[in-house]
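seq as requested:
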Amino acid sequence: MDALITVLPGDGIGPEVTLAGQKALAAIAKGFGHKFKFSEHLIGGAAIDASGDPLPLSTISSCKESDAVLLGAVGGPKWSDPNASVRPEQGLLKLRSILGVFANLRPVKVIDELVAASPIKADILRGTDMIVVRELTGGIYFGDKTRDATSASDLCTYHTHEIERIVRVAANLAEKRRGKICSVDKANVLETSRLWRETTDRVLADEFPNVEVETLLVDAAAMHLLSRPSDFDVIVTENMFGDILTDEASMLAGSLGLLPSASLGESARGLYEPIHGSAPDIAGKGIANPVAMIASTALLLRHSLLLEDEALAVEAAIAAVISAGGRTADTASAGEKVLSTSEFTDAVIERLS
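struct tokens:
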């Protein structure tokens, strides 16, 4: 297979982990006889510094022409003024909108060897294996915003078709897994959540009668994620709730540095990125965990290039390194040897070669 992959290293540790992802994809291409071409472009703070625009036209053009997009991270203290008219995060939000990637898939699986890395008790964690499906292009992040000297507002809007399509994505995943779906809202307070619940209940009842359904308010979901995480299979929720809950869920796995994500739309082209941020405090130190990015390349292979065997090979290589004792600074227990970003990546590549 020939494929064009746009690479957006971004800011902070973004370039370090993105390099790890590219190495994994190059190893897969070599081992399985594919040709992957990488086209690197700017986004976020790096793009602001270079051109004043967090998402330059050249970046947009490359992303539209590619088969998939691999993104590191955006943002950092240098560009953190919330009153600034141009901010790194604007580039990411605009890119999601342009690509039409409305479904954000965030797998959360607890690895037995890394149970000690989580602050949650091991007997609660074991068996946790879920996917959070977050609606990505609607809600409060994209609504009209106002601000004056003494007040501000952010409009949260959802339309029926936006809810229907994200629920269908989640339910289709549930049918291929354990057949369970949990819809998270705040229907006791928010009108958008009441529409969310009504639409979700209708779609699931009419189109997915064999899927077991649970509905939770978002505050209850936050509690149950920590008290009974292994009960969840597929969770579907709106944009802001999904953003918050998946960061919470990262603590189940032990570190933000372990969790990948895929942002998908109607076409095969997707946007793939670790769920962590740019972590400027550790940028350039060679200690960033590359697992989330390498695992994101497995999602890229699976969902955009339809290369399931290759995706499984990447996931197996990550698991083998961890099983053999490979640890990065964020997952190591006292006395365990810590691998640098490049050392862990090389260990994965060795198992792909």
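The chain has a mean pLDDT of 96.
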